[in-house]
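Posting for a labmate who doesn't have an account.
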Amino acid sequence: MENTFELEITDIAFGGNGLGRKDGFVYFVPGTIPGELIVVEETSRKKNFGTAKLVEILRSSQNRISPACSLAFRPPENNKSVVEHCPGCSYQHVKYEEEIRIKNRHLENFIRHNLKIDPATVMDVPVPSPSDLNYRNKIVLHLSKNRLGYFAEDNVSIIDVDNCPLADIEINAKLAEIRQDLNKYSGSSDITFRYTLKDQVQFWIENRSVDGVLEEETAFGVLEVPCGSFFQVNPKCADLLAAETAKMANDSKASSLIDLYCGCGFFSIAAAKAGIESVIGVDSDPVTIKSAVKNAVALGLADKCRFSAKSAEVFMTENSRNMKSEETVVLLDPPRGGLSLKLKNQMISTGVKKLIYISCAPDMMGRDMKFLCECGFKLKKARLFDMFPRTSHFETIAYLEK
């Protein structure tokens, strides 16, 4: 076989690909683990790195396990080529304890690279998910030519999915039911599945407007969530994150919290329940703000929690004079793309002194924290919560202050 050679995997890059060097040149190889000696075939080569596919494992890692999913990457056997695999899970072949260690090293690297500090001085122990399988309360599958599943690595073709081990078992039961008559949904492109204990499995087609609300059970009460609105996909881990958020707010000695991406009020209400005297939640979606208001009333927190349907940037512009108090902590939980440059500048110009930053994108969070720390903030604490087991993603919560 052309372009094949032995390679020792020494690290795992952010995203989940194993990293090895041949004559000093870096190769990235999916489905591998540090410590493994493998045979690979080069698949692409650029100026500074190459990619390769696994051909054979000569020395296996003690952290390798058999994947729980039939569509997860598996090394070839008996000279057979590897079947097309689902790229969503980077760590199905890795013991869960090792996955946590790998992800925590990635967070350490982002902090070290962006802030030039020793991560050990600010990082707390990582928090694993209570379940590493069947934890997702929502999945979105793509439909084309009688195939229903996730996108392949080319982001175009669809890998047929009969069962997703990450999804709640009730979602998988509904998926099996729908697959019995896929022709019924021909012409559609996406099917979203959403599960709550109260509402069971709801599903809708494409991005059409979805009416109605769901009820999510949390550690601090039942929350109303509009069907099409964002909610954490791993509820059990989200409860742990909410408790940590409330603890950070209390430890900051602040009496008021401003939650700039509040959604249905998940973190706002958790903080109010934990003793924060005054909470203001802000979100640009008026539908989810209506649910946040209802949630505060239903849980007896209407006197503590106020909600506003505005963008974070507009709210900061209108309330710039009220942000300087030592009694106020600002909570940021932005979309994956991170904070806008305008909002970062507002964090500086308005005199905000205390920040809690939650992110599912450590690369974007690292970029934003670098900006904030160059402008006077200091990172005091960071902690990983594994909201997305078996994938390359994870949640981070950080506390910064001036």
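Reply:
Got it, the structure tokens are right above this. The chain is about 25% helix and 30% strand.
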